[in-house]
Design brief:
It is a single chain. By secondary structure, this protein is α+β, with helices and mostly antiparallel strands. The chain folds into two domains: 81 residues, Zinc/RING finger domain, C3HC4 (zinc finger) (Herpes Virus-1); 54 residues. 25% of the residues lie in helices and 14% in strands. It has a two-stranded antiparallel ribbon. Strands 3-4 form a two-stranded antiparallel sheet. A two-stranded antiparallel sheet has the order 5-6. Strand 5 and strand 6 form a beta hairpin. It starts with 33 loop residues before the first strand and ends in a 22-residue tail after the last helix. The relative contact order is 0.15. The C terminus is likely disordered.
Length: 155
């Protein structure tokens, strides 16, 4: 594996289709796509996790997407600033989750509609995140299915 992609989060499949793919502005910062003075060309980049359009500044992170067809392996693809935070939480082991700020963990629960009734301690939240990864029936790793990137919570 190419050393430059080591440690990148893994995506589970194709980007969800969004109706607003022809947006005229970045979903995070609101900058307009196209030409502006002094001659700046701003083209939209699609996040390969949430599927929304962002400017290059707001979609400058990468994750690994499985190759389609008969070819095996992964290719680095663009993901937005909001999604990279979610992907990092998704991939983190228990000890790294325990080191994350509780606000970040709660935002993850909210983004993926993960229920954590009675979660009073950080360890309760960490356990709720870990519980959605493993299916009780098959004991296989599962990724959270989808979420709607809430850009209001991104700094």
């Amino acid at each position: 594996m190419d050393p430059s992609v080591r440690g990148l989060p893994l995506l589970s499949g194709p980007t969800p289709k969004r109706e607003d793919l022809n947006s005229a502005t970045c979903r995070r910062c609101g900058k307009e796509f196209g030409f502006s003075l002094p001659i700046i060309v701003r083209t939209p980049k699609e996040c390969n996790f949430c599927g929304y359009s962002y400017c290059s500044s707001c979609c400058d992170h990468q994750a690994l997407m499985p190759r389609s067809g008969e070819e095996t392996g992964y290719d680095p693809v663009d993901v937005c600033a909001f999604c990279i935070e979610q992907l990092i939480v998704t991939a983190a082991p228990r000890n790294q989750l325990r080191e994350m700020p509780i606000a970040k963990l709660r935002a993850y629960l909210k983004a993926f509609s993960i229920q954590a009734p009675g979660a009073l301690e950080k360890d309760d939240i960490v356990q709720a995140i870990l519980d959605v990864r493993v299916s009780d029936d098959t004991d296989e790793r599962e990724q959270p299915k989808s979420f709607d990137a809430d850009v209001s919570s991104v700094d």
